[in-house]
Amino acid sequence: MEKRLLTYMAYLKDISEKAGKGEFTDEELSVLRKQALTQIGFFQHERLIHLIVTMTFALMTVMTLMGICMTGYLPLVALMVLLLVLLVPYIRHYYILENGTQTLYRYYDSLEKDRTPGKIEAYVQPSRQKG
Question: pTM higher than 0.90 for the full model?
Fold first, then answer.
């Protein structure tokens, strides 16, 4: 899923840059926006499923830790290690899905026809201001 997300992000970035230069008609932009919304929906669904799985593993890990602390039953340590080994990649994958989906939102927004040509990258990757 990560490879698919990165590939689609690159595709949408290219499309949004071309849209910023006025290379598409209004009808083409409408079709591109509809396609982008469909893909974003797929990634949102994937993100929701992985949030549920990640939270389940996190809760099981915390419950196992509490069981270790309350009972002192050492074989639970092995279960906790196994849960942590699974939890870390789940957190990483969810992080990638979350940030990728947020980036897709920005690319989708940049497909709006009232954006100033040449300013799309500034919109997609806003500069960080110290506040």
Answer: no
> Residue type for 66, please?
M
Report DSSP letters for 82-113, one per residue: HHHHHHHHHHHHHHHHHHHHHHHHHHHHHTST
Residue type for position 38? T
pLDDT tens by residue, 86-101 = 999 999 999 999 999 9
CA distance 77 to 93: 25
Residue 101 pLDDT = 94
Among the listed residues 51, 46, 49, 83, the one whose alpha carbon sits nearest the alpha carbon of residue 65: 83
Residue 70 CB-half CA count within 13 A: 6
Query: Do 114 and 49 form a contact (C-beta atoms < 8 A)?
Result: no
Q: How far apart are CA 72 and CA 66, in angstroms?
A: 10
